[in-house]
Amino acid sequence: MNTPKFWMITNRNRKDTTLGRDRAGLSYWLSDKGPLDRLNNWSAVSPKGFKDALIDAAGQYPVITDPGGHMDQKHVTVFVHGYNNDWTDAARRYQQICDDLYPGKNGLGLCILFTWPADGSPLHYLPDRADARESAIDLASVLCKFYDWLLLKQAEAAGNPQDPTKGCHVKTSLIAHSMGNYLVQKAMQLAWTRNNQPLLVSLLNQVLMVAADVDNDLFKSGETSDKSDGDAMANLCYRITALYTGRDSVLGMSAGLKHFGKRRLGRSGLDRSAPAPDNVWDADCSLLIPKDHDNIHSAYFEAQKTQELMRHVLRGSDRGVIENSFGKLIPRR
Question: What angle do CA 29, 147, 149 make, to 5 degrees?
Fold first, then answer.
């Protein structure tokens, strides 16, 4: 079996030759060619077929035995899109991310699209928020399967200390955009609870919260465990990085719709009046995005400098090294 290039998990309903805006059971898809916004370029597979193909693909990556080479380890990344995305929008964004960050010998590895039934209209902000909350159950199911797999590989590695091939060949990571971060927030709380709030193994190595449409005090518990959503995320992830810019007018609209009294993480960065866990940080991308870009909310995926920043973060570069590499373009706070 040839290794698939593109991977998709969705809880969208199938509607003729596309995926629709209603929630359905999870389905699994593989593809070897684009354009990915055409469903006939995808093949539906069973959950087991998807899992077997993913394990086989991950097993083909080289094992990194030198601790100093950990940044060269390949990734299995899950990408969760935001609101106001129909399936074709999500598929196009996913293909662009794959093409720019993941292919080839020097690429990050492989990326899986998790696409949920956003309503695909700027007027449907609140319905999309409800859709995200409901879809968290489905994403949590996927994350729990990842967690079970990681525990299995950890046990195999512990039982065969002389055979490095028994351990994980890849890092697991996640990129969430806009309201997709709210979905991830709720899904991680469910996954943490289902697994009895584990503290022994990180489910995800790196999490990128891009233009996150969530409260900027999400991680206000700091190093104290209060079993909140932010506490769940901080415990399940090795490192969480929030990319933000005050130039994001879409998130300005989001804050106006909620009237909750809290700023958006993707527009204001972390709330500095509350302590954040040591493994959570943020980066102001205002100077990394060209001034003439016509869609700031999604520009992170298109601007050269923010793509470079994402590579650094996902590869596991130290935050101080990242800040120094970008100089004054990422202001220290």
Answer: 70
For residue 158, the model assigns a pLDDT of: 59
C-alpha to C-alpha distance for 306 and 285, rounded to whole angstroms: 7
Q: Which two tokens stand for residue 59?
A: 């097993």
Span 57-73, mean pLDDT? 81
Sorted by where each begins, the domain ranges of the chain are 6-64+76-329
Query: So what's the architecture of 6-64+76-329 in CATH?
Result: 3-Layer(aba) Sandwich (3.40)
pLDDT in tens, 243-252: 999 999 888 7
Rounded to whole angstroms, the Cα distance separating 87 from 19 reads: 6
Could you report the per-residue pLDDT of 281-315, keeping only the tens digit for each?
A: 999 999 999 999 989 999 999 999 999 999 999 99
Contact 263, 220 (CB under 8 A): no
